[in-house]
Structure formats: structure tokens, C-alpha cells
Specification:
The protein is an alpha/beta fold. The protein folds into 3 domains: about 45 residues, Beta Barrel (M1 Pyruvate Kinase, Domain 3); about 170 residues, TIM Barrel, CATH 3.20.20.60; about 120 residues, Pyruvate kinase, C-terminal domain (Pyruvate Kinase, Chain: A, domain 1). The protein has 13 helices and 14 strands. Strands 5-6-7-8-9 form a 5-stranded parallel sheet. Strands 12-11-10-13-14 form a 5-stranded mixed sheet, with helices on both faces. Helix 11 links the parallel strand 10 and strand 11. The longest helix has 15 residues. It is elongated, with a radius of gyration of 23 Å. The model has no long low-confidence stretch (mean pLDDT about 90).
Length: about 375
């Protein structure tokens, strides 16, 4: 159905009953604000407080404490089943509020016989309040600043972004910063100077990845949007030393070894860090320190291989069978030379675990020359 300047159609079944007179309804990341005046079985009568132009596919936010909405709807379950059948590498969960939301989704994934990683989209006030618990059960974080900016005061977004990125890195979880990064490209050939600075700051905050939304979904030239984003990222990464290192002094052997490997890239000028990994944990631990050199994560697990692409600086390498550390070193050296990331005479750092192939046993760091 097509809307006009008097009526808008939206899929909000299950929400109408929870709405109260006076509640705010925000459309398109808060650019349009409506106030509930009345409600009926299948429609809500509102007063336009802040008007504007909206188009199809825009989000609906209702920043209210009393809404009782299932975080996983029946449609979500159908979409999840479709995604899993078609080999999705990860599932991003919208409007997460509690750690239980993530656990419910993981339970549904397990029932389908899959173990796909779950990324928690942080876009609700409750998600900020319960962030540590959510972080402990999810596999990655997405800071969805559009919806988040209407759930909390907009002036808090920069500080919240920095805190969430830092905490995610302390937990060795990949963190994606998203929404309105280059939105002006929908109408203009070049981004604003403020957008350029925003993208660069997201890199310097320590994001693993940056995500475009409308800029590629509905823009007239999505490829150009990506090219512009890449240019800004590459320039910002020249200031890698400005990225804070989330290193906490604690009795953690694996953390200390990751930090030692990182130090060797600085003190010895090592050109790469090579690690065999069955779960991806060692590679993510090293990645959280944001070394200036590539991290080769050699794995025989295709799911781990795919998900490691979310982690900063990681070059996942898939092999059919991991036999021993010598095989890993040989594969790593060959890859580095083929990709011209290192050459004969360069130092490389190898970190892994013994006994070989056992998850959670990173206890080795060594330096070799190519």
C-alpha cells in the first residue's frame, strides 16, 4: 500500500496494544516525530510534532519504557530459517535489550543444527545499560547509531561509541560502527567534511569494521560510496598509533602472549603475526591490540575462516587439515611472500598453542626469519 501526507503504512502488529496516549513515534532515525493522540484496532492517530519527508523502508522507533514486544517475532523466525538455509556467515540481531535476547536467538540457531555467530546491534537504551552482559554472550557488536541516537540523547553518541568500542576490544569481540556515516552521498557527489571526520574518528576509536547503509542500499552510485569510505579509512589508518590499546594487567597467559607477539612487531620490526586457530580466539586477541602488520590466521574451520573477516587486520587462510606447527609456519611464509607482505630476511612472529590444535591453549610465541 502507498502512503501519502496523511497516512503511513507500517508493520507494527503487536505494538498498538502497548501504545499510550502521548507516546512518541519516531520515523527515519528521528527525523520525523509523531505524538499518539488515539488508537484503534489496526491504526494509530497521531499529531505531527516534527514533520519531514520519509520514504519506504525507514525505521520506526518508539522510545517508551512500557512497550511489551517480543524481540524475536514470527517473521524473524522465518527470516532466520531462510538465512541459515542459505549459508549466512553471521546473524545480526536488532533491538537487543538483554543478554537473554541473544541466548534465545542462539537457541533457535542451535535447533536448526547450526552454530552461526550472532552480532548484537546496540540501538536501545536498555542495551547500553546491560552492555557487559550482552557482550559476554554475543560474538560481535554493531553500534547502530541511527536508532541509538533517538533512544538516548544525541549528544551522548560520540562518548558511548568510544566506550562500547573499547569494551568490545577488551573482550576480544569484533565491533562494527554503522549508520549515517556518509549519508550526504544520497544527494551530493562528495561527503561533508564532518562525515569525513566521523569516519576517520570511528577508525581511530578502534572499530574493527565500518558499515554503510543507505549509502549503498538506495544511493544512485553505491560503488562510489564504498570507494570514498575506503579512501578515508586508509588515510586514518596511517595514524594507527593513536588507537588506544585495551590491555589490562591480569594473570592471563593468553593475553600476555598476544601482547608479547604485538611487542615483537614493534621492537623487532616483524612483518607479520602467524597463528593457527581452531576457534579464532587467538587471532581476535592479537587483533584487539591493532598491530601495524597483518595477522595470518590459519584454520581448518570454514566458519571460523568466514567470521574472522570481521576482525581488524586478520587475513584468514583456510587449509583442509592442520597437522603441526611446522606446516603452519611454511604456509604462512608462502602466503606472505605470494601476497608481497614480506620477503626473505624479514622477521615474523608465530603464536599458538601446545598441544597443537587444542582450543584455548595459546602458550607459545616465537620469532623466525623468512
Amino acid at each position: 500500500m502507498i502512503g501519502n501526507d496523511e497516512i503511513v503504512y507500517a508493520s507494527i502488529e503487536g505494538i498498538i496494544d502497548s501504545l499510550r496516549i502521548g507516546d512518541r513515534i519516531l520515523l527515519a532515525d528521528g527525523s520525523v516525530e509523531l505524538i499518539v493522540k488515539d488508537k484503534r484496532a489496526k491504526e494509530v492517530i497521531t499529531r505531527v510534532r516534527i514533520g519531514g519527508v520519509i520514504s519506504e523502508g525507514k525505521g520506526v522507533n518508539i522510545p517508551s519504557e512500557h512497550l511489551d514486544i517480543e524481540v524475536i517475532t514470527e517473521k524473524d523466525k522465518k527470516d532466520l530459517a531462510f538465512a541459515l538455509r542459505n549459508g549466512a556467515d553471521a546473524i545480526a540481531m536488532s533491538f537487543v535489550r538483554y543478554s537473554e535476547d541473544i541466548l534465545k536467538l542462539k537457541e533457535l540457531i542451535e535447533k536448526e543444527g547450526k552454530t552461526v555467530p550472532v552480532i548484537a546491534k546496540i540501538e536501545r537504551k536498555e542495551a547500553i545499560e546491560n552492555f557487559e552482559e550482552i557482550l559476554s554472550v554475543c560474538d560481535g557488536i554493531m553500534i547502530a547509531r541511527g536508532d541509538l541516537g533517538v533512544e538516548i540523547p544525541f549528544q551522548k553518541i560520540p562518548v558511548v561509541q568510544k566506550k562500547l568500542i573499547y569494551m568490545s576490544r577488551q573482550s576480544y569481540k569484533p565491533v562494527i560502527t554503522a549508520t549515517q556515516m556518509l549519508k550526504s552521498l544520497l544527494e551530493n557527489p562528495l561527503p561533508t567534511r564532518a562525515e569525513i571526520t566521523d569516519v576517520a574518528n570511528a577508525v581511530l576509536d578502534g572499530s574493527d569494521a565500518l558499515m554503510l547503509s543507505e549509502e549503498t542500499a538506495v544511493a544512485s552510485n553505491p560503488v562510489k560510496s564504498v570507494e570514498i569510505m575506503v579512501k578515508i579509512i586508509k588515510e586514518a589508518e596511517k595514524l594507527r598509533e593513536e588507537i588506544p590499546i585495551p590491555f589490562k594487567a591480569k594473570k592471563d597467559v593468553e593475553c600476555e602472549i598476544a601482547h608479547a607477539a604485538f611487542k615483537f612487531t614493534i621492537t623487532l620490526g616483524a612483518k607479520a603475526i602467524i597463528t593457527p586457530t581452531s576457534s579464532g580466539a587467538t587471532a581476535r586477541r592479537v587483533s584487539s591490540l591493532r598491530p601495524h602488520v597483518p595477522i595470518l590466521a590459519i584454520t581448518e574451520n570454514m566458519q571460523v575462516y568466514n567470521f574472522l573477516n570481521f576482525s581488524f587486520g586478520v587475513h584468514p587462510v583456510f587449509v583442509e587439515k592442520l597437522n603441526d606447527l611446522n606446516q603452519v609456519v611454511m604456509l604462512g611464509k608462502k602466503y606472505l611472500k605470494e601476497k608481497k607482505l614480506a620477503r626473505d630476511g624479514d622477521y615474523i612472529v608465530i603464536t599458538g598453542g601446545f598441544p597443537f590444535g587444542k582450543p584455548g591453549t595459546t602458550n607459545l610465541v616465537k620469532v623466525e626469519k623468512i
